Amino acid sequence: MSGVFIRNVHMRFGRFVALEDVSLSVAPGEFVTLLGPSGCGKTTLLKIISGFTVPTSGHIEIGGEDVTQVPPEKRDTALCFQSYALFPHLSVNDNLEFGLLNKGMARGERGQRIDEVAAQLALELQLAKLPNQLSGGQQQRVSLGRALAMRPKVLLFDEPLSNLDAKLRDQVRIEIRRIQKSHALTAIYVTHDQAEALAMSDRVVVMNAGRVEQVATPEELYHAPRTSFVADFIGNANVIDAAVLGEDKPGLWRLQTELGQLQARSAAPPRAKEIRICWRPEAAELDGTEAQSIEARLTHRSFQGHYTDLFLDKEGCEFRILVPQVHADVGDLLRFTLAPEKIVLLEPVA
Amino acid sequence: MSQQRLNDILLFALLAVCVVWLVIPFGMAILWSLVDPAAPWTADRLLPPALSFSRWIDMWQNSSLKAALINSYTQAPLAAALSLSLAFPTAYALGRIRFPGREIAKLLVLLPLVVPSYVTAVFFSSLLFQLGLTGWKFGAIVFAHAVLFLPYSIRILIVSFEQVRDDHIEAARDLGAVFWRRWYVAYLPALRPGIFAATLIVFIKSIEMFAIAFIVGSPDIVMIPSLLFASLGQDYVRPNAAVLSLILVVPNILLMLFLERLLKSANPSLSSGKG
What we know:
Chain B: Belongs to the binding-protein-dependent transport system permease family. The complex is a heterodimer. In chain A, 24% of the residues lie in helices and 37% in strands.
């Protein structure tokens, strides 16, 4: 088990800055996900960790050893590719064996390792087949098995589930997590799917435009995003500007917003006078009787089964709330409550 | 017109083309090669009056056919191998490395094809004399053929190199493969069809190339095409020319069928498709 330490990594391609001063520490046995939109630099960072790209500046340490200049073939990491990258002319068995042969492992030990991995991933019956004779899920398992057979210090995943259908994705997601936990492997996983990141990770690194926006547990990211980008990227959020008027009680801040004056609870003080705030659509309670209630007009409603998505407007300020059941029509005035602890203080307004 | 009728017409047209282009010329060549010298095939007869292998035996025993066969079937594989070896680095650069003007360079490599083979032949011949290498005519023919057909090899191999998947190379590296193991597992499966195709084309073109063999090689080196042209020209004997034509064509067809099987076994979808 080895940790990964990324220190002040910069990556430039000509004039394009792909990564800017990225630092991150991944503990041994931890499952960390790099999450962000296309072009945010997450795959570049993974390629730097795996050794395919050398950063413009900065350092990568794996297991306490500086591997920044070590090529991938000499680096003790194993990568699961988005495309699976199985060798098409080799059988499943030979694909699993390829890395072990490169290590110069004895035949008996190789066979034992392959049997072990095949049993773990239910590939025993597929060993003689070629990759194009397998389903997408089976190919993904072979790709995972090929990486696992190497028993690397760090397991890397580059959007490995993006080519699978939704149902299979859920199954393989659980499988990957189970194997990672059972082997206590250090894993770094790249995805743009926030649901996948929240479901699988010990910690999530949200990236945007080559920078790390926030590193936190899935729960913390969802309930206490640090920036409006994170709030918006992780689930749905209503983000509005607010002026800080003062502190009513310790940790209870009075804010002036487009929805009127609101109170927000936060142990940490606001980072500026003019800030952004957010709250999750499901945080609002309809027909609330609390003091902090807001009245707004219903502009659109969308029935989603176990809840209803309501789009509201208050003097040009649009937002949405999720409620379990509602008897209201478009154009009606609705009153809802927003508890101070449900409001999150974000970054200063630029 | 119904679809069935259209299909019938197209099928008939295809058969007619095959008959005109393949069956009749081949049939005539076979018949002419079997004409018995004692009973000439005259214009007033639809078919030869008597058939025998006399012409084949005569050509085998009394002409330079044996030497020509040995020379042709030695130089053609060597020319194909040399052409491939010379094409590999260029094709790799044009297929794998990105640089400004790459697309123009790809077109430029085809330019030598517009130079008539006789010009190349005369150039090589004069080069041999200037360098005092007149005793190395066989090597000169091999080299000339390899250079002449280099554009075919390069163009085919460029396409093959472009088919090599980056993720396969990266997966091989990630799994600790050294250079030659990466080559075996990531490059070779994608290159194999191209290698076969380039070999086949250079081999066949080289076997059939008259100009170089004649201008550079004669009179010391006899190749099948020079023998064929002699049979058709200075000492025109149609049955002998037919024997030579068949000798020239039949091994090529066999080779083509053999390589076609190999190409099928190196299914490009295996190397370019998912997986």
